Amino acid sequence: MNKPNFNYAIVFYDVGEKRVAKIFKICKQYLKHYQKSVFRGHITPGNYLELKNKLKKAIDPDHDFITFIQTISESSFHEESIGNTGVSPESIII
Amino acid sequence: MGKSSDTRYIFSAGDLYQKDFSIAFRKEDGNFYIPIKDTRELYCFNDITLSTKLLQLLAKAGIVVHFFGYYENYIGTFYPKEQLLSGRLTVAQALAYEQNRLQIAGQIIKGIAKNTYFVLYHYYRHGKSELKDFLDWLRKDVSRLVDSVGNIKQLLRIEGEIWARFYQSFRVFLPESFAMNKRVKRPPDNPINALISFGNTLLYTKTITQIFHTHLNQTISFLHEPAERRFSLSLDLSEVFKPVLVCKTIFDCVNNRKIMVEKHFDKKLNYALLNELGRKVFIEAFEERLNQTFEHQTLRRRCSYKQAIRLDGYKLIKHILEGKNFVPFCMEDKK
């Protein structure tokens, strides 16, 4: 009954070479570019639907594969990273 | 893990431009992409080039851009064409200024007193008994004084006294290197004045953005004179948040040694200006505080301090249009 209000999403995609740039362009309007084919960030439920529908139109459903993970916020999961990212896409100060 | 925030502070020099219907920032060491749908505000502190094409996009998305000069002084705001216009409210707001100004301004001053009390009481409880006189005055006398005055000048005098005594009380609980004798502006002359000025500027611009998302007219204010050339309503609404947002961030940074005089201030300018590292520390602490949430007592849900500023705008609208009592945000009641 009470559906939680998802406000944070992680998107990873595996798409044909031709469509990579297209998917990238759509995703970067909504989320922060985190890894080569991973985006993530804060997103409102309305914007999430918008993003999903845009991606749906852009992919070839027989060959491409996109996963969305939704969570309540960035503090509701634990994460461990190794290595160096260079510039952090999520810093508030550029 | 990154902190979620819909604000970006740009301290590097570079070009801000439009790419693929989103925002891109080109600087020396590469490009930086800013998602347009997850941005509300941009702060530009450095030499930044932007194009009208970008402004077009920002206007459509309702993103507000604040510009600052070399000495962190506020230059101005790119304020997109108002989407939320309401002639009815503007007329009512002007009428409220004519008929009801004293009452609204009085409420704001009571709000300042309550929030100052809340902030200082914490230190009183932890053994700073020198604060007792001031606290008693805030609690008992201010609201009586406010109710007894007949014009706006007298109200402003009460406000001045609250701030003066508040700033004087700083030396009770802040380390000596941050002691403060007198509030000095334009330009500030010592570290603590510099922190207050910088914090107030940030809060002022934050409030502008929040009011932008309501139907209120930014130029008709109640406590401050609705002067030309600036958004004085924002000064009004930000006033009650100063003790709880700006000053508490300062106390936190100073008392926990996150900001130190030798390390975070510009030595050449007599320590009267934050250096780059200092600004970053302060902004991060300030953003964190703004995005902190609390349980709102009327709405019965969690809400951030940033939203609380907008809610104050809505309260003002309710007062103007429906005659509901305007009581600004109060830290103690959490509403």
What would you note in describing this structure?
The complex is a heterodimer of chains A (94) and B (335). Chain A has 94 residues and is of the alpha+beta class. Chain A has a domain of 52 residues: Alpha-Beta Plaits. Helix content of chain A is 30%, strand content 24%. The longest helix of chain A is centred in the first third of the chain and has 14 residues. Chain A is globular. Chain B has 335 residues and is α/β, with parallel strands linked by helices. Chain B has two domains: 72 residues, Ribosomal Protein L15, Chain: K, domain 2; 247 residues, CRISPR-associated endonuclease Cas1, C-terminal domain (Four Helix Bundle (Hemerythrin (Met), subunit A), Up-down Bundle). In chain B, the strands form three sheets. In chain B, strands 1-5-7-8 form a four-stranded mixed beta sheet, sandwiched between helices. A four-stranded mixed beta sheet of chain B has the order 4-3-2-6. Chain B has a two-stranded antiparallel sheet with strand order 9-10. In chain B, strand 2 and strand 3 form a beta hairpin. The chains are: A alpha+beta (94), B alpha/beta (335). Chain A: Its EC number is 3.1.-.-. Chain A: Belongs to the CRISPR-associated endoribonuclease Cas2 protein family. Chain A: Homodimer, forms a heterotetramer with a Cas1 homodimer. Chain A: Its cofactor is Mg(2+).
